[in-house]
Amino acid sequence: MKLPGQDAIARQADEHLVTHRVKLPRKLVEHPIRQVGKRLSLALVVLLVTAFIVYADADGYTDNSDGSVDLLDAFYYATVTLSTTGYGDITPVSDAARLTNIFVITPLRVLFLIILVGTTLEALTERTREEWRLNRWRSTLRDHTVVVGFGTKGRSAIQTVCATGLRKEQVVVVDPSGKAIEAATAHGYAGVVGDATRSDVLNRAELYRAKQIIIATQRDDTAVLVTLTARQLNRGAKIVVAVREEENAPLLKQSGADAVITSASAAGRLLGLSVLSPAAGMVMEDLISQGSGLDLIERPVIKSEVGKKPREASDLVVSVLRGHRVLGYDDPAVGELQLTDRLITIVRATPATYVAPDARPLPRD
Predict the structure, then answer these.
(1) Nearest to residue 168, comparing CAs of 24, 351, 287?
(2) SS3 track for 247-268
(3) Which of 61-75, 111-125, 171-185 has the lowest mean pLDDT?
(4) Alpha helix (H) ranges present in 240-331?
(5) Does the structure show a pLDDT above 60 at 358?
(6) For residue 213, what pLDDT is reported?
(7) DSSP β-ladder status, 145-148 and 212-215
(8) Contacts with 69 (C-beta within 8 Å, 6 or more apart), sequence order
(9) What's the CA gap between 135 and 351, in Å, rounded?
């Protein structure tokens, strides 16, 4: 099956003009121009204070040219002194002027140098500091979640998995849009700018060490290419893909996806259910909104539940995962609960609700 636009995507993947980089979340800071402007303003204030201090004690200084020090001479002396040039043509001769130089002018000189030189050093060391952060991030990132696409579907998926206890530091977003990655980093997620159909871009996201991969691209053909690349790089990760057209779901599963969600069909079913029963539609929306109201979670069977029927469990059981099969709560094959079973249950969401991670992928049709 050849999807529309696949040739164009393949040609784009072959181009080397696409730039990609890793962006880590950081605290909001002022614009660099505004920061430099503030520092220059502070340096000017230090210069003015120094000049007026010298002018106020002009009798304690001597000028080699005419012997007296006026306001212009005071500014000239402050400039050459704070910049450590020190021509020596204007010098303090009285004890008061020399004490002022020791206890006032010298600290102001140090402050002046810190302001100007500090700005330069900060600009020079920013790249080194960023490289150090990236290396440290790569060395500590393990069993994380990679989300391809930071649109509406991608953001909702991240919010859901984070509501179950996943830390933001364990989420890496991949998107070709720089603005989307800036939005992701503003929310506290690490981001990689680039085309996710390229293996080098996914490697920058450390995908080969990821535990689960969420693919929420805008196009189905892009989702197929990303799934193929991701499965090639990571054989053991769980891959969940969202597609628009239901007819593309089998192709995604053949490409290596563990689960495929048809967004258009799912939205249509929810619309139909809401028409038939608005209350039932509200309940379904509540169930898929993790972290509030009622939550649909997967958890292991506890010892006290072993040997009981699903209806006798401590939570409302919807399905039982046994081996590679998903059985309904009323399926005669379930019988009694076993310690190796996992339960799909409905629970009341609380801050202490714990959602156990999946131990095995969902069965493929």
Answers:
(1) 24
(2) HHHHHHHHCCCCEEEEHHHHHH
(3) 111-125
(4) 249-254, 263-276, 278-288
(5) no
(6) 95
(7) parallel
(8) 54, 55, 58, 61, 62, 63, 77, 90
(9) 34
Give the global pTM: 0.58
pLDDT at 247 over 50: yes
DSSP for 171-184?
A: EEEEES-HHHHHHH
In the chain, the amino acid numbered 85 is T
- Token pair in block for residue 271: 């619309």
Least trusted range by pLDDT, from 13-22, 64-73, 209-218 = 13-22
Gyration radius of the chain's alpha carbons: 32
Give the model's pLDDT for residue 99.
Answer: 75
Enter the tokens of residue 118: 């500090």
CA distances from 348 to 285, 290, 293 (A): 14, 10, 6
**Both structure tokens of 171:** 């989420």
Do residues 226 and 337 make contact, with C-beta atoms less than 8 angstroms apart? Answer: no
Q: Kind of pairing, strands 259-262 and 238-243?
A: parallel
Is 340:310 a contact under the CB 8 Å cutoff?
no
Angle between helices 71-82 and 106-140 (to 10 degrees): 40
Specify the pLDDT at position 355. 47
Q: Which long-range contacts (CB under 8 A, 24 or more apart) does 173-182 make?
A: 173/147, 174/146, 174/147, 174/148, 174/149, 174/201, 174/202, 174/205, 175/148, 175/149, 175/150, 176/18, 177/150, 180/150, 180/151, 181/23, 181/150, 182/23
Q: Backbone phi, then psi, for 318, in 5-degree steps? A: -100, -45
